[in-house]
Amino acid sequence: MCDDKVSASLTVSKITDYKLNGSNYIDWSRKIRIYLSSVEKDDHLSQDPPIDETKNAWIRDDARLFLQIINSMDNEVVGLAHHCEFVKELMDYLEYLYSGKGYASRIYEVCKAFYHPEKEAKTLTIYFMEFKKIYEELNMLLPFSTDIKVQQAQREQMAVMSFLAGLPTEFETAKSQILASSEITSLNDVFSWVLRTESTPSNEQTKVVVTKGEEKNDARRNCFFQAMSKCFLAGRETNVEAAATSTDEWVEQYQPGVYVRLTMLPSGKKGLKGFRFSRKKFTVKEVEKWWKENKLSVYKNYDK
């Protein structure tokens, strides 16, 4: 009986009556963080579960706090975070979703899934349930408003997302830059941005070049090969060349098996010119996969 009372108490427990609905994220998040700090549990915002003898107690505390935070959120928002297991994971995801850091990108992904759904091999029921979830998330990200200006801004956003979704892969850099910007402006502004990217002079597109034949010399087996057909740098397609082409360029190791070709910009910063990959570490498909997974971090590391 006592256990039932404890369970019931935890079920209704919440940190604040001011529930998260998406638009109030900043104020809501501040209240949650202040509360966690007041009970000396703010370490749950930054730390993963310990692996020592305190692990079980820490996980119990985290589960209690997690439940309190969930109970301080609207049901629609709770449905978006069902994959989260710990307080840190939950709060990081909500920050990504609502603080603006990943908001535009999330709207883009949801709009693309909503306007271009694919049943594929799913059963009709699963397809419907997934589509309905996307529809509900879209309504939450772009909630109905009686304010005409808000409605116009939402329509403009959806037009931008639809326009970006139809762009081919050579505009991937421009698309990423637009979605990473602090604010999506008008469709005309986005078009101008992409148009500038298209009109930027670029080298002729090349296919993947791999050294033909098998070299007998071990030293030559470890040579670098041109492995990427398109490397999206500075908003334009750039050939991946085998070596620096002038005295103003040099090669540095970016990570094991991956080397970057750099040049010094007038600003004094390093400018990225291209990549080289070790044949022993990468196949052509592995290079393409590496680029998809790492291109955003590459852009952050170098002035483009």
UniProtKB/TrEMBL annotation:
InterPro entries: Brevis_radix_dom (IPR013591). It holds the Pfam family Retrotran_gag_2. It comes from the Eukaryota. Residues 248-303 form the BRX domain. PANTHER family: CCHC-TYPE DOMAIN-CONTAINING PROTEIN, INTEGRASE CATALYTIC DOMAIN-CONTAINING PROTEIN. This is BRX domain-containing protein. It comes from Solanum verrucosum. The lineage of its organism: Eukaryota, Viridiplantae, Streptophyta, Embryophyta, Tracheophyta.
